Amino acid sequence: MRSTAWGAYKGITEALRARLASGEFQPGAALPSEAALVAEYGVARNTVRRALEQLAEEGLIVTQPGRGRLVNAPGQRTAATRPHYQRIAADLREQITSGELAAGALLPSESALATRYGVARGTARQALAALQDITVSVQGKGRFVKPQ
After folding, report:
1. Are 133 and 94 in contact (CB under 8 A)?
2. What three-state secondary structure class fits 126?
3. What is the pTM (predicted TM-score) of this model?
4. Each residue of 14-32: pLDDT tens digit?
5. In angstroms, rounded to a whole number, what is the distance separating the alpha carbons of residues 113 and 107?
6. What is the largest distance, in Å, between two alpha-carbon atoms of the chain?
7. Which residues contact 6 (CB under 8 A, 6 or more apart)?
């Protein structure tokens, strides 16, 4: 793990992911508290939170009020546990591959996606960034579907 906070959350995420995979934490079991993880890894609370958020985005853990962060059972790791930006990106990718959004078509703006899906603009921005392999961004004009 790196000695600075920059990227340290990635090492913590990997370590926790390995612990989950090894069965150290069984499905339904609570993870150690943020305070315990801060002490264990010697980092700031925000660094631990970022690692835990990553695991939640992957559907490996879920937060339940009053119970903390719990390990998800493998069968519960469905599309419903995917982060919003991944679902938006999947929707747009489907529209592109089906031809609904043809080569050269302008994708909806961050603002339009935020309104359509009821998410923050940052979430919409992440969704668009996840489509870099099949789209191209033109400064001041928007993001377009790449020609095949």
Report:
1. no
2. helix
3. 0.51
4. 999 999 989 899 988 999 9
5. 9
6. 52
7. none
